[in-house]
# Entry
Amino acid sequence: MVANPVPRSLALGVSYGLSRAFGRALPGALAAGAVDPAAGVAVAGAALAPRVPGALVAGAVVAGVLMKRRPLDRALAAVVIVGAAHCVRLVDRRPGQAVLTAAAFAAPGLARRQGALAAVPLGASCAVVVDDLAEETTLGASGAYALGAALGAAVVATNGRLGLAAHALGVAAGTAYGEWAAPHPHG
# Structure
């Protein structure tokens, strides 16, 4: 039986993103073994997003190309990955909100046949929830983007065109609401 490399790549990607925020998660992820390039590229691009303009979108596009065969599916995959990353980053303003959003985003995937794909990024976020709720640390931009991209990659890996379209609409609506509801400076 051949092990699926995607869960380990998600662990590596999320750990990389979290290591940018916490500096301690990467060594354990490197010990996880083989890395699937698609999800790893998506999450690494997301983790670099705060410092490298366009890295989030570039990583999502490359992941979409590697994970799906048809052009429309590739485009939907990129939208889902970028949208999920942006949604998690939008809500990472107060303690526990990013982890709660990740749990809501991952919940449907946990019941699926490949539930481990959603469980890995959710588990990574739960590992830091106590410190996040205690306001001792936050995910930060890199960690939030990486967590969202990992969840988006899990959705892409486990859904066909209809599921991708539904998730793309969902993250677009969530992002629009998040941008609308975000506090803006008055002036």
In short: Residues 71-91 form the longest helix (21 residues). Confidence is low (pLDDT under 50) at residues 1-10, 18-36. The CA atoms of residues 41 and 122 lie 19 Å apart.
